[in-house]
Design a protein that fits this description.
Blueprint lengths: L4 H9 L4 E3 L6 E2 L2 E5 L3 E5 L17 E5 L6 E3 L4 E11 L4 E7 L1 H4 L3 E2 L6 E2 L4 E10 L5 E3 L4 E9 L37
Antiparallel strand pairs: 1-7, 2-3, 3-13, 4-5, 4-7, 6-12, 7-11, 8-10, 8-13, 9-11
Length: 190
Amino acid sequence: MILSDRTIRDEVAAGRIVIDPFEADLVQPASIDVRLGGQFRVMRNSRVTHIDPFIANDTLMDVVEMTDAERFVLHPGEFALGHTAETFTLPDDVVGVVNGKSSLGRLGLLIHATAGYIDPCFSGTIVLELSNVSTLPILLRPGMKVAQIVFQRMDRSAERPYGHPALGSKYQGQSGAVASRYSDNASPDV
């Protein structure tokens, strides 16, 4: 079941869903708009020859910090990581789904490649996988409404929610545009 605007506000007021900072005017009929944070990670295309997901590579991406007054230029065909300005903590019976804003999608901005799902009990900022599929650069401003999150109530609480010791939840408590931690997985013959 998708949570309505009233239910989202009630869940936040009860402390079951934590959104920090929470601004009631961002609540939509069946979602909440989220704003873009000020940290980005951009591929070092000119210095790295390939990506091996099983090998941690701190030189793969440059970190770019932007103030609210600055603009981040996402060039055509470029990929960057961003994050929500808001931090989220979900209860063990609610999941979140990240969707792009239609108006930005119509300009060629994609918000996520595969990470559009927020597990029950996740806590942290949401990392956005930003891609420009248009033929012109897109200016992104920290603080702009960039995506929306739809909350869905599960049929029962998760037995092993995100953060459970048996799961190896690599992104619990993340802050900012956190890079891939895929290399934490077991590696085949590296």
